[in-house]
Amino acid sequence: MCAFRMKPELILPNQKRIVVKIGSSLLANPELLTPRWAFMQRLMEDITNLRNDGYEVIICSSGAVALGLNMIGEPRNRWTSRQAGGCGMRYAIIAQCV
Fold it and tell me: How much is the pTM?
């Protein structure tokens, strides 16, 4: 169970919108640059619970580049970041749909 289950209404009494920022280190294993599927599954469960409680949840992520770097097999630089982001976004979208 996540920290969100500590009753968001106690923290945000009048708010019904929550923005969740997911960084690369949470979305991808930093050494292997592979998806952290278990984390993503738990996150989606927590978001589902929040939505069932009446909250609008907005997900922001910068993790697509980290996931995509493994796919293209190149070190990160200004040219590969865009390619990696395009490739890695597929993982992020799949995780949100599962």
Answer: 0.56
What residues contact residue 73 under an 8 Å CB cut-off, 6+ apart? none
Instruction: For residue range 25-71, list pLDDT tens digits in order.
Output: 787 776 777 788 898 899 999 999 999 989 899 887 766 777 777 77
Q: How far apart are CA 58 and CA 19, in angstroms?
A: 5
Task: Pick the closest to residue 16 from 51, 48, 60 (CA basis).
Answer: 51
C-beta neighbour count of 84 within 10 angstroms:
24
Closest by alpha carbon to 49, among 1, 88, 92? 1
